[in-house]
Specification:
The protein is an alpha+beta fold and 59 residues long. The chain has one helix at 28-45; strands at 3-12, 15-24. The termini are far apart. The relative contact order is 0.19.
């Protein structure tokens, strides 16, 4: 099973959230499902988290 990097984007009311992860999957569809499952598992087990990188630009 090849290793694939998945970048997912969610448009929220006050911004855009990105989830980037690597998964083992045979197809793009499998990769997306695996990435969604990893995100849900991460959110279920984390008590506190913070952003560790950012980019700021004038608009």
């Amino acid at each position: 099973m090849p290793r694939q990097q998945v970048t997912m984007q969610a448009s929220l009311n006050r911004g855009t959230f990105y989830w980037v992860t690597e998964v083992n999957a045979n197809s793009e569809e499998e990769a997306v499902v695996a990435a969604e499952n990893l995100f849900l598992a991460e959110m279920d087990t984390v008590d506190e988290w913070e952003f560790t990188d950012y980019d700021v630009s004038e608009t």
